[in-house]
Each structure stands twice: as C-alpha cells, then as structure tokens.
Amino acid sequence: MTSIKEEGEDGDTASTPSSPENVYRDPDDGKQRFLLELEFVQCLANPTYIHYLAQNRYFEDEAFIGYLKYLQYWQQPEYIKYIMYPHCLYFLELLQNANFRNAMAHPGNKELAHRQQFYFWKNYRNNRLKHILPRPLPEPIAAPPASAPPQPPVQPVPPAPATTIAVTATPTPALSPMQYAIPHGSALAKNDMRTSGVDRRKRKKDG
C-alpha cells in the first residue's frame, strides 16, 4: 500500500503545471523586453505620438489600457534612473485618466500640450534657479537712537537797528572855458598882439 501511494504521489507531482520546468523564461533574461518597454514608455513624452494612438483608437482597447497601468512600474527608483525623457512619466500618469485619453484625439489639444511642453523647457532653467540660488538675507532694522534730553530753545537775536549816515557833498565851483584852456598857475606866457607886432618891426629894421 505504501508503495502504491508513493507511486501515485510521484505521478501527481510530475503532472502539476506549477512545476519550475513549465515557467516561461526569456532567452536573454528579459533584456530585450526591458529595452522594448523602455523605448515605448519614452515615446509617450511626445504629444504627437499620444495623438496618433488616440486617432487610431488604441485607447479603446481594454488590453492596451491594462498595459498602460502595468507600465507604471517605471516610476520606481530602480527603473526611473534609465529614463532620459522624464516627461514620459508625466504623460503616462495622465493617460490613466479616460478624459485625457479622449481629449488627446483632438488636434487642438495636441497642439496645446506640445506648446505647454515647449514653454516648460524654455523657462525650466530660470524657474529652477529661483529655488536653488540662496536668497539674500533681510537687512537688519536699525535700532532707534536713544532719546536725548530736550535742549532749551534758542532765542533769536534781535536785529541791530539800521543807522543812516548823512553825507554832505561840498559843491565844486564850475570852471570857465578859459580855465580849461590854461590851467591856473601855468608858466606859459600870454601872447599879446601888441608885443608881437613890435617884435616884427624890429626885425625889419635890423634887416
């Protein structure tokens, strides 16, 4: 009995499908699958590619929606280090929402997502530096000076009275026309018409 039971148990264990011999294994230890899923996830960083998937009704397939949920393992730290385009993880999270999947079928929404992505790349460095660079410390507020004892008010000095000095000018006598010609006390000889005539006569007689 014991031998038959042992043979039956051995036969049951050999026919169970959960044995390690029936488990599928990738021939390259999953390297090819890893690369394919990494490439597909990073393609989701392009809004035009998401628009292509929506136009071809990939988002209406329940199996494809389940595949998008499965790909969320790329958000884990041991896998996220292989991502070169981090926007793909943001769009992968948005694709879990049915409203976003339906909206991306419209060309206008595709252009809007692409435009917002461009603005993010354009202003990312400046916005990042605002949070990284240290901000200047606030200037210390100066303490108010100690209150000095009040000084007595200075009385204004009364102005001195203005003194007027009367200046009397002595009148100078007006000069005659002859005084302008010959000054007073001059050594110039006055010419007389009579004396000049006598001198001429003498010269004629002598001659």
Explain what this protein looks like in three dimensions.
The chain is mostly helical. The protein has helices at 2-15, 31-43, 47-55, 62-70, 77-80, 87-94, 98-103, 107-132, 177-181, 193-206. Helix 3 packs antiparallel against helix 8. The longest helix is centred in the middle third of the chain and has 26 residues, at 107-132. The radius of gyration is 62 Å and the shape is elongated. The termini are far apart.
List the helices and strands and how they pair.
Blueprint: H1 2-15, H2 31-43, H3 47-55, H4 62-70, H5 77-80, H6 87-94, H7 98-103, H8 107-132, H9 177-181, H10 193-206
Helix pairs in contact: 3-8
Report strand %: under 5%
Mean of residue pLDDT values: 73
Q: Class by helix and strand content?
A: mainly alpha
The main β sheet shows up as: none
Supply the number of helical segments. Answer: 10
| Residues in helices, as a percent range | 40-55%
For this structure, the quaternary state is single chain
Give the low-confidence spans: 1-18
Measured between the Cα atoms of the first and last residue, the distance is 209 Å
- C-alpha Rg, in Å? 62 Å
State the shape: elongated
Please write the string of helix (H) and strand (E) elements: HHHHHHHHHH
Count every beta strand, where a strand is a DSSP E run of 2 or more residues.
Answer: 0
